[in-house]
Amino acid sequence: MGNFIDKTFTVIADILLKLLPASKQEKQAFSYYRAGMAAQSRGQYAEALENYYEALQVEEDPYDRSYALYNIGLIYGNNGKYTQALEFYHQALVLNPNLPQALNNIAVIYHSQALRAQSMDKDDYLELSKNLFDKAAEYWRQALKLAPDNYPGARNWLKVTGRLNNPDI
Q1: 8 Cβ neighbours under 8 A, 6+ residues apart
Q2: DSSP letters along 66-125, please?
Q3: According to the model, what pLDDT value does residue 20 have?
Q4: pLDDT tens digits, 31-87
Q5: At 80, phi and psi to the nearest 5?
Q6: CA atoms in the 13 A half-sphere facing the CB of 3
Q7: Nearest-CA neighbor of 79 among 88, 91, 90, 68?
Q8: Scanning 20, 31, 56, 97, which has the fewest C-beta atoms within 10 Å of its C-beta?
């Protein structure tokens, strides 16, 4: 089923690319972005990164650039390179502050790092853990403001830990 959807997307994207009034540069950027998505879905992350970086070289639209940056962050995060992932998520948010998925992923990274610090069981690490949990909460609250029906696990964690400052989100 997934292969059918991928092929359907490719056919529709090809048709749109030919029909839509877009500049050669815009079409080239979209082609790189689409190739990056295809490679990413196949687990070929190096190829996906190459295509996303190429898309960023030619793409001028901030909204479109934000999604390339977000996807680069996803790849780095999935490969355990959390510092790079955070950098790209933040760059994406600068261009498009309405990316709740980037906010969520930032929160997930901070939460994961907090759990790791907490497991060290030393006073220095416990304080670090608390600060990282607070950062995770901050980003999850922002994500929930943008997408109130998403991230029920985050909402529950915020409630249980007393970090849901605004019950309306």
Answers
A1: none
A2: HHHHHHHHHHHHHTT-HHHHHHHHHHHHHH-S--HHHHHHHHHHHHHHHHHHHHH-SHHH
A3: 64
A4: 899 999 999 999 999 999 999 999 999 999 999 999 999 999 999 999 999 999 999
A5: 80, 10
A6: 0
A7: 88
A8: 20
Structure tokens given for 78: 């999935």
Task: Quote the CA–CA distance of 3 and 7 in Å, as a whole number.
Answer: 6
Structure-token pair, residue 116: 């790791």
Q: Take residue 74 and report the two structure tokens written for it.
A: 């996803």
Q: What share of the chain is helix, strand, coil (3-state, %, to 5)?
A: 80, 0, 20
pTM recorded for the entire structure: 0.86
- Residue 105 backbone dihedrals phi, psi, to 5 degrees: -65, -35
Per DSSP, 161 falls in state T
